[in-house]
Amino acid sequence: MAIRYNADTKTFILETKNSSYLMKVSRYGNLLHLYYGGRVPDEDLDYLIIPADRGFSPNPNEAGNDRTFSLDSLPQEFSTSRSGDYRSSSMEIVWGRGASSWSGKVAGYEIYPGAPKIKGMPGLRALPGEEAETLVIRLEDPVSGFEAELSYGVFEEKDVIARSVMVINRGEEAARLERVMSATLDFMESDYDLIYFSGRHLMERGFRRIPVSDGIHAIGSSRGASSHQYNPFAIVCEKNCTEDYGQCWGVSLVYSGCFLMEAEKDQFGQMRVNAGINPRGFSFQLEPGAAFQAPQTVLTWSGKGLTELSHIYHRIFRENLCRSPYRKNTRPVLLNSWEAAYFDFDGEKILSIAKEAVDMGVDLFVLDDGWFGCRDNDDAALGDWTENRKKLGMGLCELSEKIHAMGLEFGIWVEPEMVSEESELYRRHPDWCLREPGRPPVRGRYQLVLDLSRRDVCDYIIDAMNSVLDKARIEYVKWDMNRSITEAWSALLDRNRQGEVLHRYILGLYYVMDQVILRHPDVLFCGCGGGGGRFDPAMLYYQPQIWCSDNTDAVNRLKIQYGTSFAYPVSSMEAHVSVCPNHQTGRTTPLNTRGIVAMDGIFGYELDPTKMTGEEKEECREQIRFYKKHYRLITEGDYYRLTSPYENRYLTAWQQVSQDRKKSLVSIVITDKEGNDAQRYVKLKGLDPDGFYRIEGWKGKYSGKLLMNVGIPVPGGLSEYEGIQLLLKMA
Question: Which residue numbers delimit the Glycosyl hydrolase family 36 C-terminal domain (predicted)?
């Protein structure tokens, strides 16, 4: 059993293949955290908690004269609020005549087979035949009337524990929830580093590693989406932790909206990690009997460094979160029209681009922005989801038929959550936008955000998207979101509920995606949020791949895809070869290098093939042949970061290894070149140390032990921005 309860010691024991997670009911009913780390046989770890009389750390009333029991210093599973614990709380409520304290005590528990049930939001599911167990512990505070049901889903073989919380108002009056964390994780020590991923539009998910110092370090988003600026994923690790050595803990929030992650080092050298909905601008009114479901947080532990942690997340997200049939199906190689034409196209131009794409060996042509309404720039027509027959010279159905007749599949770009002020939809329904009354709206990209907290708005989007997909033969949809939310005010909610808008928006988005995507299970959906602005686990539940960044520069992409790889599998990262000089940076890199970098994801093109030479097209054909031949190795093989682009200025290298360790692909890109340069070597990983490998194009064979301990020499003839791929096969 992965979950059990020791009644003698009042201890809950959760076990995965390699980890143990223990918590204990205190003598006063509080749920205390004992341990999360490498698997241990012990079931009574009460000795780890040393009672002490701490000055200015209050004692709960039930402790009487016992000054050694204080919630201000004890490790908790779901912390109290206004009850003597001054650290960041798990939950904050306002009830009765304005009281805000909450002190939940264990009132019962349940263990049931299967994955946790997360109402209205994405969550991990168990595969057919896969064992999973769920523990639900009920914390009750009879004074406030609020209960918290803590959910722990244990995926034993995957080494994952999925946590969440359901908050229920059992009182007789309405009350207001102002903060709820999906998971609180208390550490008895704090001599750790915190790794998180930050950036901006065009440079998302940059790798950041800092020591945990006194106070609170917080990352998050208040932009309505998980954002370009921060990703809802963080790692706590030992200071000596590397890719291959040391303990580390991963915290990943399965949520697409405003989030908060905190790491707090307290006065006693302990650390608390919180993950949940961002309380900034958030409140949720709960009537008597009403419940609030918090998002799921996916936790894992590794005792073998960051690479093993990444492998755990890659596997669980690829297999237990993504539910598209394309989770297992081979994805088509596409060509997208955006950087090829932007808004400057007609039907004839699109067909000429598609015709040349066929000659390159592409499988799928995607018509990006500009095909609908009066959409000749980004100032108009969002919300009017009917084809522009005048611009295309035909209907979408006819265009799709012509492209299919060439032997290509057909895809389109949509941005369903937005509306332009210059649109028929806005003229009919100005109240459908998120905007404050009596104030001119804040604009982003000259567009407003539709109020997805309203069911009528959601139903309009569902009908509009289904109408397009039902009418024309479409195999791919790029679902974009190109602005952050500012005025989160809904015309249908009263003043006491406006703090619910941002969360209700996300629930509405999930509802819309359910209704559109479930109706079209054979369509490949790709997520996008101005590139990587909504690259989070919850989106993978609906869309098996996400456009990694609007930045297609191969050198910048080395850092973007490096940071993304810590939590997200290659199969989730859509990456394209684009034209040079690059449209975002002006940099020129070889076509071969652009192909190598784009193969570190779901491969495609973002250029105009009518302007390419015959030699360039032949090189693209060879790239596509290579990618398709080694698709499973690239997208499902174990992923290894061989160098860091933040630490190694000279080169960036990564590697995929098949599950049976018989094949491997090594990719290397030179990022800086010096005259009379030193000979550089790259040590490989993940190979069978007792096996021997041949490297395609090289003479001889080499032991896995040699390749991992000594490495391979990087060819000295490579120039700056040139790259190579080395294919290894077991001899």
Answer: 652-716
Question: CA dihedral in degrees (446, 451, 457, 459; nearest 10)?
Answer: 110
CA angle 154, 521, 373 (to 5 degrees): 125
Residue 227 has pLDDT above 90, yes or no: yes
- With DSSP H G I counted as helix, E B as strand and the rest as coil, what are the percentages for the chain, rounded to 5? 20, 35, 45
Phi-psi region of 513 (alpha: psi -120 to 50; beta: other; left: phi over 0): alpha
pLDDT higher than threshold 90 for residue 81: no
User: Would you state the pLDDT for residue 304?
Assistant: 98
3 state SS of 43? coil
Asked whether 410 and 353 are in contact (CB, 8 A), the reply is no
Q: What is the pLDDT of residue 1?
A: 83
The values of phi and psi at residue 160, to 5°, are -130, 140
CB 92 within 8 A of CB 100: yes
Q: Helices (DSSP H) in 637-729: which residue ranges?
A: 704-709
Which member of 368, 480, 536, 608 is catalytic?
480
Is 244 considered catalytic here?
no
Catalytic residue among 363, 550, 608, 638: 550
Q: How far is CA 483 from CA 257, 532, 554, 658, 672, in A?
A: 13, 12, 25, 39, 35
Element (H, E) at 625: helix 614-629
Is 72 in the active site? no
Question: By C-alpha distance, which of 478, 457, 350 is closest to 414?
Answer: 478
Model pLDDT, residue 525: 98
pLDDT digits (tens, 9 = 90+) for 178-213: 999 999 999 999 999 999 999 999 999 999 999 999
Q: How many CB atoms lie within 10 A of CB 55?
A: 5
User: Over the stretch 289-343, which tens digit does the pLDDT of each residue have?
Assistant: 999 999 999 999 999 999 999 999 999 999 999 999 999 999 999 999 999 999 9
Closest CA to 572 of 524, 612, 505, 626: 524
CA-to-CA distance for 578 and 129, rounded, in angstroms?
43
Q: What is d(CA 77, CA 63) in angstroms, rounded to the nearest whole number?
A: 19
Produce one character per residue of 552-567: b if its CB has 16 or more CB atoms within 10 Å, e if not. Answer: bbbbbbbbbbbbbbbb
